[in-house]
Specification:
With 237 residues, the protein is of the alpha/beta class. Helix content is 34%, strand content 12%. It has one domain: Uracil-DNA Glycosylase, subunit E (3-Layer(aba) Sandwich), CATH 3.40.470. It has 8 helices and 8 strands, in the order H-H-E-E-H-H-E-E-E-H-E-H-E-E-H-H. Helix 4 crosses helix 8 and helix 5 packs across helix 6.
Length: 237
Amino acid sequence: MLTPADLSPIPSAEALRDCPLCPRLVAFREQCRAEHPSWWNAPVPAFGDPEAWLAIVGLAPGKQGANRTGRPFTGDFAGELLYATLAKYGLSDGTYAADRGDGLKLTGAIILNAVKCLPPANKPEPGEIANCRMFLHASLAALPTVRVIVALGQIAHVAAARALGLKPAATKFAHAAEHVAKDGRILLSSYHCSRYNQNTKRLDAAMFEAVFARAVEARTHGSDGRVAQIDSGREQA
């Protein structure tokens, strides 16, 4: 049986297949294993280039997506926009076909999650986010060439900020917000590319692509120190 480390470009940073840290998530995992024994149903490993300059941090696996397939953003609605955007900016090779076996590879990019296991209703509890923090920290520590982090949604934004040594209270989340860590790594934030955000027009393809365009620019030119203006009515993920 494959483990998260078997599939990961950074195996030392992965959780155990039967990670016991979060009782509620363990119970939900076991329920999914009983109902869908052919699914992955385990902590989802990182996917991408171990020499990436860009790390994308998502929230957590989706039930029909990564929890089923074992690859981040694979098999659900959110993945369609994410992988199309990565292709547009030359960060992938191959064609995304919503399947772990589609042969897609990322070049210069890697996808991580703030929470590695499927949470009920896609809503991890604070303690679960805290328990998973060590895996995100270990992942970024294992990726010394990452200079830009794109966080998808507020939970991922806070998790990434902590991993970069930024104080969440001073690192405001907003779409296209930009913050710089003491070591020069740049945190860019986006609304999550979820079906809900796309259907409600909170996020469209142009908005999402603009964040990745800025990531490419930041890789070349660094940060000018600016932080995007925040619209107080549009801060939630």
